[in-house]
Description:
single chain; 131 residues; alpha+beta; three-stranded antiparallel β-sheet; 7 strands; rod-shaped
Amino acid sequence: xDNKGFISIEYLxxxxxxxxxxxxxxxxxxxxxxxxxxxxxSVSHRAILDSVANEISQVNSNGGGFSKSVTLPSDVGYxxxxxxxxxxxxxxxxKKGETLLPLLNxxxxxxxxxxxxxxxxxxxxxxxxxx
Length: 131
């Protein structure tokens, strides 16, 4: 037998085995990296929603005429926060998150957009107004 041909077949076989092992690992690692980015994105948007809920709760806990300015960050992409009676909802991409504010008293539905500033105030009737 020719020794050169036999060695080449061994190398081809070992490269084939290595590819069989490495390719699924690459797909697995890509999936893990995507999952990490999704979790990071969800956590950052949840932090924004909790921050807005905290600001609205602070205004709500004070008396009539109290107001506070809220600036929504734009460094995490586009999102929209809906303020309804007793509920805040954030929507970004194809995802949605919400938090409850049980003592919130509003007279209408408000939409807040990323990168904009708003003034949250409590009128003399005890209702929250966002402008």
